[in-house]
UniProtKB/TrEMBL annotation:
Residue numbers spanned by region Disordered: 96-129, 325-352
The protein's name: glucan endo-1,3-beta-D-glucosidase
CST complex subunit Stn1 N-terminal domain residues: 45-86
Biased composition (Low complexity): 107-122
Any GO BP annotation: cell wall organization
Reactions catalysed according to its record: Hydrolysis of (1->3)-beta-D-glucosidic linkages in (1->3)-beta-D-glucans
Main location group: nucleus
Native source organism of the sequence: Pochonia chlamydosporia 170
Compartment list: Chromosome, Telomere
Top-level division of the source organism's lineage: Eukaryota
Amino acid sequence: MTEAAQAVIYPRYCFHLSPTANSWCLVTASDIHGLRQHPGFEGENFFFYKNLPIKWARVVGPVVAIDEAAGRRRIYTIDDSSGKCIEALVKMPPPTTLNDAPRRMQARAGAAAGGAAEPSAPDSDSLGPYGHIDVGDVVDVKGALSTFREKAQINVEKMVIVKGTAQEVKLWEKRTKFRQEVLDRTWILSEKEIRRCRKEAEASDARLGKKKKHLKAVSEGGTGYPNDLCTSDGEIVHYNLERGNRSTERWWKKNYTCKKSAPQQRLASADIVETSSNISRETPQELRFNSTDPALTSGLGPKETEKAASLFQSLFTTMAPQDIFDRPVDTKAPPSTISVRKDHPEPRKGIRSQAPLQTNKFYSNFFLGDQTGPSFTFPYSVAWARGKGASGSWGLSCSHIDEQQRVFGNEKFNGASSYYLNPIGIQSMVISAKELGKETALSTDSITAFSARVHLSKNESSEPAVSYPLVQGMAYITAQFDGSVPLIQSGVFFKAVSRVTNNPKDHVTKYNFHLEDGTTWRVYGWRTKGDELDLKVVNNGLAESKNPFYGIIQVCKDPVTKGSEELFDDGAGVYPVTVTLSGSAVGKEGSYCFKFQKDGHQLGHLYMFALPHHVSSFNGDTKERVQDVRLQSPTKGVASLVKGSEWTMVERNMPIDMQFAPWHPEKGSMAELSDKAKGIIRAAAAKELSQNIPAQTNLDSMYFSGKALAKFATILYVVQELLRDKTLAKKGLGPLKAAFGTFAANKQKFPLVYESKFVAAWGGIVSSASYETGDAGIDFGNTYYNDHHFHYGYHILAAATIGQLDSEWAKANKDYVNLLVRDVANPSAEDKHFPLWRSFDWYHGHSWAHGLYAAMDGKNQESSSEDMMCAYALKMWGKVIKNSDLEMRGNLQLSIISRSLQSYYLYKKDNTVQPKQFIGNKVAGILFENKIDHTTFFDPNIEAIQGIHMIPILPPTPFVRDDKFVKEEWEAYFSKGRVDDIRNAWKGIIYANYATVDPKKAWDFFTSRDFDPQWLDGGASMTWFMAYAAALGRL
């Protein structure tokens, strides 16, 4: 009683934050009779347990009496052995006729005496919806709390018979758990939360006040104002929703129509429409009924709230755009022209998941090589210690590198360090189990595009001693125990260890570990059964649990900034399992959403770390949940802690008007050429189209063949669409179709194979080159899933361009090209032949080229511009085959790539994400998860290092490499005649890139009489480079 008296009763506008106000509270009859009412909440039927508001109750127990009461009410008395009974009130339906009720009672009496009931008066009707329930039945009752003559009772919403003792016991356990995790804890809100709730309530009241006239007009069937949200016309009600007051180009306005309902029901509908200002309008798909808003749900129970939400969705189903990730590109098996293999040169070590499997994701080191390479979850990295390192542990080591720990290379170009890296192998904290040792086996399962789970077992045949769910951006390293003995170890060594006396949550113990390097790590143990986590410090590198443990242990690094410890306490026991991706596009605005599937403790919030490009694109709601807690990430700047299980990122300027013609962000598509330029370009095109197209395209490399196919396709586009010379175009189109047909028929030098969903295979389309030669590096590792988005991206781009010129050809080759699309960019789990998003990493905002090779610095990608190329190819192929989802995903990917590359790959002087010692390089070179090396895999010269981030020059090039960046890079490396010292194919690439800011200079270079053919890359053409410069410069 003292605790209840001291608990703060919060204002009504805070109730939606409580764990009880909008929930079925599984309690005892004795609990209900002990609830109190407080002044100020009269008429709302809120009762209080301590300070927890309860309106909806659930009880379980046998029926001990059934009574009829005045006003057609039936009262079921429930005795749940808590020391008190509770009455459950059921309102009976009215009789159909004046004489119907007694006649039905007679029928029931006759049936009880052994007679037959009258067919016109079935027994169930006379007794209402729960006529089958009798004294002695154990029931599960849900209903609203109320009082009658100062005695608590339940107004039944639903009552079902419990099916046996086992179900009853489970309900008892749930009731006990609810008491321990909810009722036994005082509900506490911070002042900040109370202020926020008050502001939200005041804003809601203001909106509702302004809309009273609209409500009245709606309920009376009138219009009221020119822009009424609801107007009446005959038997139809028209709903109009205008999305804000922004320009019509960005926001939309549509009319929605529904059947007119009964007056009171119509008013409820209008209520929802009018108060839909409580729905987030940041992005199109965020049109949802806010069930926690008191303005919408006051006076409504869970059932009515659910109905209101359903009604809202039925009214505005067409309002939310299609999820562009929902539908597969295709689901057909690969054609018979592509042979199937059941094996792959790279074994699947310890993988328990079924194919198709991810090959290019952050956790790949756990099933490649010796399985000890680190996996970079950002901002942490984790690795299997495997008995090595300073800790000597067999568990999973956790590491986080601060900015001052980075290692920088010597200055090489433009006064910038040639590389920077984060030290690996630092075992700051290790979560292990006493059962692990020299026979420890590592396995993985639950493999997705965003997550995986790693298991460590005593040996190959044992069940896991400890399991680790890994998700990109996780704020804690989480370990799951089911009876093994936990060990906390360190290779940095403990300086001080303390146990916090006041647990942050029920059954969550907390330890503070201060390490010798000055860092602070929090350790939380949430027990789900058995003993609490009780650690004994054995030495300065080992703390051991005194007992077997059931539950989860979490480790996180605390930067020890204002409020950081409290936030980590709030998130303790809660952890992510995986992520689902969704998105939409309306006009130029696209959005994508991460929904983190969480598990663990019921109290507290999920916290995840976001990278800079996420934060800069967060919608309003997500941005408000960014916390002032940050940790340095390995290569993506500072990561920010975000509260909540859902993020929405918005791209407001997708290049939807970008086609095949040269394009500029400010000027749009630029397809007009002067007659003089056309004449010069036509001469170059005629010369290039006279080359041997089959010889240049049917090579022993999918990469180089794709580049050549795309080159000739682009030449033909210029000829037919920009020069309007259909005769010349027709001359080249036939040979190009035949060349592409070689690949569509799978008759190239190294045909593709589908290594299918078998125990030894991964699931995807690969070159047969490594199978036939035994060389893992041939064709840049295509067989090992290396560079697939580069290789297949060029083929898809070639197909899109040919298809633009001949739509019938596109239809005939659709299945083959879609197969390549599905291998690199499958959006849907409905396609069982390929993994989701093999190449593109939606968390990082760009792709990883690195396939099935173990690597201590994690995944990598060299050519950021070829990543752009693939996204552009997907967009244009989608446009050609009229697959709007594919086209919109391509637009969205281009926008995300543009944003992320300008933070992580392409460095202007004002870049604040990458280290100041490094941004003078202007480009990354090779970006790994753990380091950035300003070089290439094939050429250390500056023109190659910079040029690999230019190639190929395409319409989206200025969208990603903006004017300011191009100018700065030119001034740093190529101005004042330095570009003319380059005597290889990179020279042409660099000049074509410079056309973004000085198209005349580029045009003069390509049209010069002194132009040397060796300055032209094998995947580039004079035709396109001249057309590109001439169009951008209107020459």
